[in-house]
């Protein structure tokens, strides 16, 4: 895998992590309800679930590509359509991240970890995202190093992003500023997701 290809993977993983959804709501709830530490625990437990999804998706797509290239292309096209749909939804969003920044409830470390990994493992949209995302990278994953990068990049990016969220929300003065930027994050994510969908189809 070339460095430029990895940078593309990194950028997409960043946008995927930043997209508002139930994962953000969960980390926010545990941060505001249990403090910085609980938010960070929730963040990295969530990232472990992301890593599991990434590994399973990568291995599955590699098998499909080897045994049924036409099926692989079909999965890639469906994935591109899903990415485009997510992009349109993000562009049309009126609440977005702002709607997720609600007050948290009291929590403990075990609950924060449990909720973090559960919200990632039991969210089917994450599997769909990886099917769409990895369809363009699995073909260049021709070594163990490349495969490791494809799995660990989304895991680490996810953990770091939600850790940043937990750190920011630990300071109450930051929350209003984050809310003001919610619309911009939605729009940026929407545009990039649509461009990514076009790229997936173009590279088939």
TrEMBL record:
Coiled-coil regions listed:
none
Q: Cite the entry's keywords alphabetically.
A: Cell membrane, Membrane, Signal, Transmembrane, Transmembrane helix
Give one Pfam family, short name only.
Answer: LysE
Q: Which InterPro entries match?
A: LeuE-type
Signal peptide boundaries: 1-25
The residue ranges crossing the membrane are 44-65, 70-88, 117-141, 148-170, 182-202
Subcellular location, in the record's words? Cell membrane
Main localization (coarse): membrane
How would you describe this protein's topology in the membrane?
Multi-pass membrane protein
Q: Which PANTHER family match?
A: AMINO ACID EFFLUX PERMEASE RHTB FAMILY, ARGININE EXPORTER PROTEIN ARGO
| Protein name as annotated | LysE family translocator
Natural source organism: Shewanella vaxholmensis
């Amino acid at each position: 895998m070339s460095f430029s290809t990895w940078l593309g993977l990194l950028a997409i993983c960043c946008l995927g992590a930043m997209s508002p959804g139930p994962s953000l709501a969960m980390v926010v709830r545990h941060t505001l309800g249990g403090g910085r530490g609980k938010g960070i625990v929730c963040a990295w437990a969530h990232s472990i679930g992301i890593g599991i999804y990434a590994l399973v998706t990568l291995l599955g797509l590699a098998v499909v590509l080897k045994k049924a290239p036409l099926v692989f292309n079909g999965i890639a096209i469906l994935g591109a359509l899903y990415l485009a749909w997510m992009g349109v939804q993000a562009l049309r969003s009126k609440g977005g991240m702002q709607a997720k920044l609600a007050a948290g409830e009291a929590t403990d470390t075990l609950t924060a970890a449990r909720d973090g990994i559960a919200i990632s493992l039991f969210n089917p949209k994450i599997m769909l995202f990886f099917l769409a995302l990895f369809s363009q990278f699995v073909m260049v994953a021709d070594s163990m190093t490349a495969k490791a990068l494809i799995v660990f990049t989304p895991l680490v990016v996810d953990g770091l992003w939600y850790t940043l969220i937990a750190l920011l929300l630990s300071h109450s003065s930051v929350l209003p500023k984050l809310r003001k930027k919610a619309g911009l994050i939605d729009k940026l994510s929407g545009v990039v997701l649509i461009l990514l969908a076009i790229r997936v189809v173009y590279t088939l």
